[in-house]
Amino acid sequence: MLHLIVVIVGVYVATLGFAILINVTPKDLNMGGIVGVAGYLVYLAYFNYSNGGYVGGNVFGAFTIGILGMLAAKRKKTPVIVFNIPALVPLVPGGQAYQVMKNIAMNNSHTAFFYLMQVLMIAGSLAMGFLLSELFIQLYNYVLRNLRKRKQSL
Q1: How many domains does the chain have?
Q2: What pLDDT does residue 118 have?
Q3: What are the pLDDT digits (tens) for 7-16?
Q4: Residue 15 in contact with residue 37, Cβ under 8 Å?
Q5: Which residues, including other chains, have CB under 8 Å from residue 106's CB and lie 6 or more apart?
Q6: How far apart are CA 78 and CA 118, in angstroms?
Q7: Using an 8 Å Cβ cutoff, are 61 and 42 in contact?
């Protein structure tokens, strides 16, 4: 339990730190941190408890960040990028990218290629998660709009 609390605090601080670096307004910092923690917790839950891999965990984590980022942006009347970009930082494959460069420098091409494939799969899964969240929100708005039109015509 203590480990989970440390992870949550670390992800929150990392998200806030990156948000400060890109000049997010102080009124949006807390919500951005919450979105980042929620996305990372979904990633951890999928990765640890469903015997799924890091690709699926990143898809669901990015999906969560995308949905919650859009809801936060609507609530705060702020562009969605203010929440999505800092919240994505804990899921970015920085360690694997470092291993790619280290193994290239050490002339270990097979190991470098292995880590490069991980980086590409994680980056693709993050993009897929954001794409699916956008699709979900658009579909939800479309259905809601048609229900309102149908209700008004009756």
Answers
A1: 1
A2: 95
A3: 999 999 999 9
A4: yes
A5: none
A6: 33
A7: yes
